[in-house]
Amino acid sequence: MSQEQHRTLGEIAADTRYPIDAFHFVRRGLDYTVHRVHANPEELSEVERHVSGEQLSEGLRDFAVDQYGRLARTVLDRWQIRETDDFGQIVFSMVDGGLMQATESDTVHDFEGLFGFDEAFATEVPLDRVPMEGFEQDAVEQI
Q1: Domain count of the chain?
Q2: Fewer C-beta neighbours within 10 Å, C or N terminus of the chain?
Q3: What is the Cα–Cα distance from 9 to 68, expressed in whole angstroms?
């Protein structure tokens, strides 16, 4: 796609079922992921900064949890993002609109079925990770 054919993020979002906030999330999540995967991404060429669909999906999951905590799944659901396939649809809408780049081997299928959101955004904390040191039983009983 040539420079003059680039579409705005709003135009791209309007052609999908996803709100513009979902696109902003994916763009910010891409930056988050690139910085996690590559030590000094600003020193790399665009080709060297590439991340796979799997890396990006995992990064977007972690970014959502970092940004929204236990509400991550709820926020993504509000934006119609309910599976990793949705990440791929958003990414390739931006690729097609000229706002992101993909390698020749990248496809929307790279995002399909990578993990289930039920497990990825489970909010249960294993009991062995709950701190007990300094816990005052009397303080709880007073409540």
Answers
A1: 1
A2: C
A3: 23
